[in-house]
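Subject: sequence -> structure tokens, single chain

Hey, anyone have a minute? Need the predicted structure for the following. Not urgent.
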Amino acid sequence: MGATVTVAPLASLGMTGSSGLDPVRLVAGINHSRPQSLILVPELAMALVAAAQQGQLDRGRAAGLPLYEGYGLSECSSVVALNVSDDECQGTVGRPLLHVEVMVNPDHHILVRGNTHLGYLGDEPEGDGGCEKWLESELIQALGAQQAVIFGDGDPKPSALVVIRDGRSPAQLRSALTAINAGLPDYARVGALYIRREHLTGADGYLTTNGRPVRHRIQADLPTLLAGAFPIFTSTISTKQPGESHMAFFDRLQQETAEAREHVTGAPVVSAIADGRFSLEAYTWFLTQAYHHVRHTVPLMKPSATCIPTVPWTRNTSNFSAI
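Reply:
Had a minute. Here:
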């Protein structure tokens, strides 16, 4: 139709990573290309017209920008529905375009078919978990894990449940994860690893017959799976003061309590609980001992907390309830 599409480097439009934006450079890039139309997510439109949600269209149009609401998906490249100048209903996304069909299923999910994308790069045509699979493969190869499952959709950073059985220390695994994250796009950098020693199996319903993760089942049992795993986090609470050079609080805590934590997790009572061999009477006895332990240690923790000024939350003695 004689149209010209300009693909500019993201940096020239003020964009870094998946969420960084310099509005001044964005405007300069738009002025340089002078396009007749732009497809923008609401955040970019808001940055251009300096308006938030309510009144965004009116303010944009007052600034001379002919804005119209629509709906799109990257997989549809990208517009699915759009209001136009002679057929507009503000507050809606407009009518579907002619190249796609749209319906809402009984679960209120929007389904789009038609001239859409052919699949994700490196994904199998009928594979599941398109967004997760490449990151799971990366973790398996780079970490030497035997299994990996990504979860945490919607969280600032994804997390991963991985099976590693070679006995590496938490410090070694954290170092390996940091190196992996350095080569990943910011939206895919893993915030936490949960290390399991036992495989996920098809007998438990966690794998398909060809070894793929059954994501809805894993998600449903996630609290139980994580309870039996060892966590490694990439973000830490630092106690470093200006001019000082010492270990981050979390790293030091992990290092200095490694032996004690191993002793606790290897205790017979913990093994019995995991194996389902823990009776009600034994549980009552356990809680009784825990009650007396907490009752006598909390009075010691209160004055101790006031001696750690570099970690503010420890100075709030209301965190320790009277028992």
